[in-house]
Amino acid sequence: MRVRIRAGDDAPVDLKSIIHNHLLTGEHEEAARMSRDLMLVGIYAGLRLASEALTLRWADVDLRRGLVTAQGAYPKSGETRTVDLNAPLKAALTAHRDRSVGDVVFARGDGSPYRSIRTTFAMACRRAGLKT
Asked: Residue 102 sits in a domain of what CATH number?
């Protein structure tokens, strides 16, 4: 699903501002941190959100060596690939690991994995006053 953002005639859409001010902060702080870390994995490691990042397990993340492995069952190519972690992503995942529960990297407080970020992103857009 694509989120279509429609701003008023006098309000330019600033996606960076939406992400920072309405997605990465707010009353749902844990979901906001998860969303931020998930987006960083997508941006810095190049993992596809639904098929690779949301299926990531801690066994696939080597923080000591600075590597993340997308298992062959999930990448579009069907092949396992390993990606280097840059400093911001390594720091985010290290902090994320300290807060996580279970073996799934992007899991809820009860350990069940997230399946989508659609709702979280749509909520951030609504908080920013945008129609989705």
From this structure: 1.10.443.10
